Write a sequence for this structure.
C-alpha cells in the first residue's frame, strides 16, 4: 500500500540549515516565511485569506527515516517516533501551524514558521479552532520542556 | 519532486461508507475507532500513552484529486481546496485530531474519529497544545456552519 506525493510549491524561510531552524514554530512567532504555490495549483487558494491560521504540510526532504525509538531535540530520554515530532519518520511528512499575514496571488506571507528554506509544500489546510484547538490536551513528555539549542547527533 | 508514502497501519471505525462518516471528528466526540499499527512499526509507539490527544495522518484512499475550486460539505458557496478540508485534494493526505483512550501493544483505542473504516494510516504525531492550540484563530467561512447531512454530488 503505497502512493505518490508531489510538491505543490516551495516554502521560503530564513532557516538555511537544520542548526538554525527552530524546533517548533511556536518558539519563534516572529519568524517570517513565504509559501509559494506553483501556478498550476494557485486557483486552490481562493478564499484562503478568510483564515488567520493555516496548517502547512511539507516534505522533510533533508531527513531520512531512521530508528523508531530515539532522542528528540527537547528531551534527553528516548521516546517512540510516534510520541514525538522528530523529522526522521517512516513517512517524511511534517506539519506546522502558521499565521497567515497576507497573500499576493500565489504567494502567502506567513509567520511562526519553523521549516527549512526550500522545503517542498505538500498541502495547505485551514486551521479551524472548533476542530483543531484542544486546550485540555496533555503535554505528555513536552511538559516543562523549553526551547534550547538542538543537541548534536540527534538526527 | 515526488516521493513515496506507505501505509504504517490501518484505522478501523464504524464508518463503512462516506455517507455515514462524520464531516469532522469534532462533530462526533463519542465515535470510537482502533488504530492498528503494523508490527514492524509498533516500537515507535513507546510512550505514546503519555498523550491524551494525537494527530492521525491518513490516506484518503477512496477520494480522487479533483477540481481546485469546489463546494465543501459544510457550505453552499465554492471555495479553493486549500481553504477547505475536503478529501479530494492534489495530495490525498488527511489529518484528524483524536483522543487516545488506551493502548494494547500495537492497537490504540481512540475517540472522535471521522475516517472511513479501513483507512491506511500514514503517521501519528502527539498533539501538543503549546504548539497546536490557537484559540485566537479565525473560523473563516466555517463560522456558524453546523453539522449537516453531506449534500449529494460533492465529491
Amino acid at each position: 500500500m503505497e502512493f505518490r506525493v508531489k510538491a505543490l510549491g516551495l516554502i521560503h524561510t530564513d532557516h538555511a540549515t537544520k542548526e538554525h531552524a527552530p524546533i517548533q514554530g511556536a518558539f519563534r512567532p516572529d519568524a517570517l516565511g513565504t509559501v509559494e504555490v506553483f501556478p498550476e495549483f494557485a486557483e486552490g487558494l481562493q478564499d484562503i485569506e478568510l483564515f488567520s491560521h493555516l496548517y502547512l504540510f511539507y516534505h522533510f526532504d533533508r531527513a531520512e527515516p531512521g530508528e523508531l525509538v530515539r532522542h528528540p531535540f527537547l528531551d534527553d530520554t528516548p521516546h517512540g517516533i510516534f510520541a514525538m515530532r522528530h523529522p526522521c519518520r517512516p513517512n517524511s511528512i511534517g506539519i506546522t501551524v502558521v499565521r497567515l499575514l497576507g497573500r499576493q496571488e500565489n504567494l502567502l506571507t506567513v509567520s511562526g514558521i519553523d521549516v527549512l528554506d526550500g522545503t517542498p509544500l505538500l498541502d495547505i489546510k485551514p486551521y479551524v479552532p472548533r476542530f483543531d484547538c484542544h486546550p485540555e490536551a496533555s503535554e505528555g513528555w513536552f511538559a516543562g520542556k523549553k526551547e534550547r539549542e538542538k543537541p548534536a547527533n540527534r538526527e
